[in-house]
Amino acid sequence: MSISINSKFDGGNIECLSCDFADNIRLQIRKDKGDEFFQWFYFRLSGEANTRYTLHIENASASSYPRGWEGYKVVASFDRQQWFRCDTEYANGVLSFSVTSTSNDVWFAYFTPYSMHRHDDLIASMSIRDRVSTEVIGQTVDGRNMDLVVIGNPDAAKKVWAIARQHPGETMAEWWMEGFLKKLVDEQDPVSRTLLDNCCFYVVPNMNPDGSANGYLRTNAAGTNLNREWNNPSMLSSPEVATVRNHMETTGVHFCLDVHGDEALPYNFIAGTEGIDSWNPQRLELQNRFKDTLARLNPDFQTVYGYPVAAAGTANYGICSSYVAEHFGCPALTLEMPFKDTIDTPDYRYGWSAQRSALLGEACVSAILQISDAI
């Protein structure tokens, strides 16, 4: 039997060490530009139907977040439409996973991929909607477009920003964007109609198109981690951040959500900005109000587990939410979703998924309405 492993496509990442035997396919993940990060993988296996394949990623223990493999299950698909979790084990530094194919081809990924082709479809679908405009506000390091979706009246009193995929391998963030945007542009939705009476939304569905296309976990085409660049972005190494930050200056910001995925924690949670210099009890009350509201609207979100709370005055202003909160004097939150399944609300076949990410995006629109009086 002939077996082929290939990742030479949009978002692909893997290197094949050996694929001579179906029960012992040896692989390793290619590093991001800059050689600092790696964890994202996405590839196609071509062989024969009705065959049990066992694959091993041999450099898993050297990846950026080895704790992320503990309790994790690889996603697989036979049609690139429905992605399911497959048998996975992390032992002795190797990530091993198996699936019995029902066709000649199987695709595997760290999380359900979100292609640049789908991104273009998303932008096109937004551009034809009422009360929506799309704009190219700049280019990436490699010359790809930086797309901005504006929903509502730019003269509205309150400006709400949402960005996703600063870290391109966190594809759940753009799936979240699909749900978020779908609800916002629904003219029959009373939540969105009410919000758009007073708020204008500025949405960047993909902050890192180069990293997305190249199959990177955290960096852009210059090898830069964009979510450490916000206090001093460079048009050479981080034009994506510089472009968005400059546009924020022209519009102002009254509320900001930066959407991510966390490799290790099996929860949806908010990382706040308690470490900024201007943090105060009023900001804490509004942050908790948003979190509590979102938890009521969507049981997949919780408020117990997350990152340690930063001490006052210790904020890293290279991080988007901290920079925006301090610079614009507004609530700015980082939303984290898991690569693993959620502990409290598990789905044993699909785990945390594209569909659940989109539903959380929809719930966030409703949660913003509930705090819009205070932003």
Q: Identify low-pLDDT runs.
A: none
Strand order of the largest sheet: 11-12-14-13-15-17-16
Radius of gyration: 20 Å
The N- to C-terminal Cα distance equals: 62 Å
CATH architecture of the largest domain: 3-Layer(aba) Sandwich
Please state the average pLDDT score.
97
Order of helical and strand elements = EEEEEEEEEEHEEEHHEHHEEHHEH
Name of the CATH superfamily of the largest domain: Zn peptidases
Assign the structural class, choosing from mainly alpha, mainly beta, alpha/beta, alpha+beta, or little secondary structure: alpha+beta
Quick overview of this protein structure:
The chain is of the alpha+beta class and 375 residues long.
Walkthrough of the structure:
It is a single chain. With 375 residues, this protein is of the alpha+beta class. It has two domains: 106 residues, Immunoglobulin-like (Sandwich); 259 residues, Aminopeptidase, CATH 3.40.630.10. The protein has eight helices and 17 strands. The longest helix has 18 residues. It is globular. The mean pLDDT is 97.
Based on the model shown, name its key terms.
375 residues; alpha+beta; Immunoglobulin-like; Aminopeptidase; 7-stranded mixed sheet; 5-stranded antiparallel sheet; 8 helices; globular
SSE diagram, text form:
Elements: E1 4-6, E2 15-18, E3 25-28, E4 42-46, E5 52-57, E6 75-77, E7 84-85, E8 87-91, E9 94-100, E10 105-109, H1 116-127, E11 132-139, E12 145-151, E13 158-164, H2 172-184, H3 190-198, E14 199-204, H4 209-214, H5 239-251, E15 255-262, E16 269-271, H6 281-297, H7 320-328, E17 332-338, H8 354-371
Parallel strand pairs: 3-5, 13-14, 13-15, 15-17
Antiparallel strand pairs: 1-4, 2-3, 4-10, 5-9, 6-7, 6-10, 8-9, 11-12, 12-14, 16-17
